[in-house]
Write a structure and sequence with these properties.
5 helices; alpha+beta; 2 domains
Length: 270
Amino acid sequence: MSDVISAPANVFPCTQCGGELHPDEGQNFLVCPFCESTVYIDKTRVVFHWYLASTLDQPKAQANLARWMGGSATIKDLDKKARLAGSSFEFFPFWVFKSKDKSDNESLWLEPAAAISVSELKNITVPAGDLRKFDESINAQAHAPTIPLPTVMEWLKPRLPADAEISETALVHIPIYTFKYTYKGDSYTAIVEGATGGVFANIFPAKAESPFRIVGGLAAFIFLCLATFPVLGALTGGNGIAIGGGLCIGLGLLSAPFLFALAVWVAAKV
């Protein structure tokens, strides 16, 4: 996935074999006639061009979405109450960079190569062993990159460690299913990544935090009060500390099941 900076107009060296490539005017995708590597040409640079094959069809992707909706992060019964408004499939482009510092520590960076509504998607992982040479057969479903490579590299520079440099660059098309759904009159978007099945969303009907905070605060208050019994017992002298400790333990054991049941009830409601 190494990148090669080239110069002469309309003549670019292949990133794999170094052979001269002569793209037509406006041509971005090219297969090297010498080594058959697939490359992407971005004005002054040639980079490898890969894609990830999808392991999910639309029904399986929708099933993954339903499991996510029924998970712990979303409100209760979202998978039953949400209404699917539409779905689409495409191979979305990402600029993938590998950086290396002076100690030879490597890091991988992903940046969208086109505008996308769900920015969380850049948190995906790209397994290098699953990358395939870009195939013209998926070209119709491939979203064309619209953010130039030099622009993305300028965005990336401030985030790189001071002693790190970009060592490899590639354009990778990743399969995604975009689902639109509604809940209580509001519209939401979620993306299912077709290679791993991961679900990504910026905004979604999440569980309310305040009920859990109330339960947590109540538990803290009760046990703080119980903790004062041994202290008060010690101040009274005699067997006071033993009596206070016994009350603390006994009432604590009685309170624990109540607080646990309350937490379960809140979780079931929200």
